[in-house]
Amino acid sequence: MKSEKISEAVVRRLPVYLRYLNELHKREVATVSSQELGQKLDLNPAQIRKDLAYFGDFGRKGIGYDVSYLIEKIRQILKIDQQINVALVGAGNLGQALSNYNAYLKDNMKIVAIFDSSEAKVGKQINTLTVQPMDELGRMVEEHRIRIGIITVPDFEAQRVADTMIEAGIEAILNFAPTILKAPPHIRIHATDFTTDLLSLAYYLEGGKDDDNE
Amino acid sequence: MKSEKISEAVVRRLPVYLRYLNELHKREVATVSSQELGQKLDLNPAQIRKDLAYFGDFGRKGIGYDVSYLIEKIRQILKIDQQINVALVGAGNLGQALSNYNAYLKDNMKIVAIFDSSEAKVGKQINTLTVQPMDELGRMVEEHRIRIGIITVPDFEAQRVADTMIEAGIEAILNFAPTILKAPPHIRIHATDFTTDLLSLAYYLEGGKDDDNE
User: Which positions make up the DNA-binding region (chains A, B) (predicted)?
Assistant: First the structure.
């Protein structure tokens, strides 16, 4: 596995493949071609073959990819062949919405703790979790070996929350606050910005449609 | 403007540039270099120069980019130099959270209507909007010239909502439901899948860190 050269774009496509492969697996489909993957996921089949070739020689000409094998491989590559524990800070509407996704994350990852700095929210029940105060974060991260943090607080609180997470030993952060976070280089931060998704969609309105059919 | 060849990856970076440029503009910074943009946004400066060169010759050697001019240009390219109206379907936690982002979208885009199929939610006030029943969607899309739809309903309802939106004349959809939607080719659909973001983050845990410093 030549993991040194994989671009973020490729890494971000792997869970997309995984989701559809899981769907196929549920429907008891045994093999899938890059053509079918491409059509379903709106990606170029050559791109898909190239992406998957980074990780080894999975496909067989004329047959396609073995669904179960590919699921297993992608899970290994993404390092989600063991459950990864996640903490979420910010028990507002967005935090509550995200905590519902535990079901979709399946056995790959799990939000195991939710925190909030507001006394009004501490103690509140969200699905199976009870909102905890921020000063419990360090202990929980250690106790549950939490490695990833999700930030769903307002923008002006996000940096402080990130600092607390990093101090507690969290290694990667998914930031939903619409602000750019500072962190040491060994901490991986991904920003999920809804406004970015929405604004980029405007480009494709009227006239600009379908211009990336390579 | 050679808009035929711009890849989705580039289009998706433009709002990221725009957000930081707006921030610079607010701080009354007049010019910015690709180096600074790269450092701040964790992107390769050469990549940034290449991205912006698609749209014309903006930068000046040794001086950098004029912040106001670049903001104006990116807004034009993304076609958000006029307000684009957006409808949201699904007034649950996620829908409520997203409706708070109107403030961040500024004058570029606006969620002007929220719909839900549940009678319990219809009539509810979310910020300045009142949740409307689904059968009002067609009329509202026409009346307010709504061009983009956001789907924040559970996965099993998402396709039906998408069909209704498309029938009403909506041209592009941002889908938050963790399912793949079918749509005619002239309809642009972007999926914003939180689980994808989270799973791809796992790749960078332990050992896999910082391997894309080209």
Answer: 16-55
Tokens for A67, please give them: 């669904």
Q: ipTM of the assembly? A: 0.84
CB-based contact A206 B98, cutoff 8 Å = no
A95 annotated as ligand-binding: yes
What pLDDT sits at residue B207? 52
In terms of residue numbers, what domain contains B109?
Answer: 84-197
- The answer to the question of whether B94 is labelled as a binding residue is yes
Place of tokens 């929350």: A161
- Contacts for A76 with CB less than 8 Å, ≥ 6 apart: none
Name the residue among A193, A39, A140 with its Cα closest to residue B23. A193
More confident residue, B91 or A214: B91
Count of structural domains within chain A: 2
Out of A3, A193, A198, whose CB is closest to B148?
A: A198
Residues of chain B with pLDDT under 50: 1-3, 208-214
This prediction's pTM: 0.82
CB spacing of A202 vs B92 below 8 angstroms: no
Beta strand B84-89 with B109-116 is: parallel
Cβ-based contacts of B188 with chain A (< 8 Å): 201, 204-205, 209
> In terms of domains, do B97 and B168 share one?
yes
